[in-house]
User: What shape does this take?
Amino acid sequence: MTITAGAAHRPPKEAVEEPRQVRVAPPPVPAPGSRKRRPGQRIVAARAALRRRLRSTVPARLRLLRAATVLLAVALGILLLVAGVAANGTWDAVADRDAPRTTSAAGLDLALNDMDAQAANILLSSGNGGTGGLDTPHTKAVALYADARREIGHDLRTLSAAAQGDRTDEKTVESITDDFAEYQELIGRALENDRRAGGKPDAITDYRDATDLLRDSLLPDARKLVSANDTAFDSRYAAARSALSAQLVTVLVLGLLLLAVLGVVQWYLARRFHRILNPALLAATVCAVAAVVLGTQLLSSSATHLKVARHDAFDSVVALSRARAIAYDANADESRYLLDPQRRTRYADSFLAKSQELYGIEGATLSTYDAGLAATWQDYRADAGDPRFTGEFRRELDNITFPGERAAAERTVDAYAVYERDDRRIRALLTTGREQQAVEFCMDWEAGTSNAHFGAWMTALDQVTDINRAHFTSSVAAGRAELTGRLPWACALLLLAVGLTGLGLRPRLAEFR
Assistant: This one.
């Protein structure tokens, strides 16, 4: 077989190798639900991983516990400071705004009644054109009239300044000021007519117009101011008490959390470093306990002093101030009764109505009032819960709180009963035609006369009021003393607890550097 040269190395036609094709691998298919992370997401993930690693180390746990202690202590200190500032503002409002406004309004009510009563006494004791008068009662009535007028001017200025920003109170004070100017003009005209011979009827007419203005406009507006200011005071008191209660609960919660964290720190150090106690942390815990105790005492004591000032003391002050104003108005009704024969029935009914406001006896008339007063008062002395009389005296007797207050209040009612019996004697003298004796008994200041007994009643009433005013003042002072005495110590102890915590953890953290 002939083999052609090179044929042996030539591959068969079918076996000729084709050029190779380069295959490109397809991109990897992402797993279901996976996405390519953005740079920002990778940073967040890295930080989270770092935090997890740090938490898993002892220094990280210690730093975390230290931060929790600092944050809770600082939060508790800030809360106590905020509560202290709010409490101080409350005491400023109570002592310098709310109470003075209410007492000024009550004082205005009293002074208006007193001025009108003294105007009636001047007309009653002046005689006829300056002859046949009662010198001592007249001189005293003139002096008391001037005192009452000055007091009204002072109270109006105080109330006008206090009403700034409250349009309702501003309008009320403006109305009283305008009406008082008209009232003074009528009284001035009455006194001028009374000084001339035969001018008594004209003087009585002018006085009648002045008294009507007093009853219809001046007194209702003055009592509206008393009620409005007392209600505003009570609303602020309720808001302040509510805030103190909420702050007390928050202080307790933060304090317990702080103590719990300090306890965890002690436990962790004992477990990890085999130390039973850390002296600095123990001292920090003691400081934290003391701070929490001082903070809770501060808030609870402030709430207690506020209650004593507002309800235990000032409620009685308001009731007794109203009683005093009503008493002066009732005393004026006696003088009006003697001065103006045409209105005697009206003034007798008015006197009875005021008696019922002071010591209410259901169904009583002037002829039965004394017996009803004696019977119900005797029952009350036997059982202080006996409810068979009402009025301002009842409000005070139901709010007895302080040492000596009940005895003073009971002496006031006893003196009131004597004055009421004097009123019946005046009416009996007038009924039997002894008008001059009735006037003398009503207006004289000698022992055993009506004015002397009225003065004894007012003295007894003032003693009860002074007891309550003194406790109001002492409660305000005690509430302020709580702030200056406890708050700085509580905040200082919290700062010390923070410092001691850092001091106690510092050696342990240093071991890992």
About this structure: Residues 189 and 206 are 7 Å apart (CA to CA). The chain is about 80% helix and 0% strand.
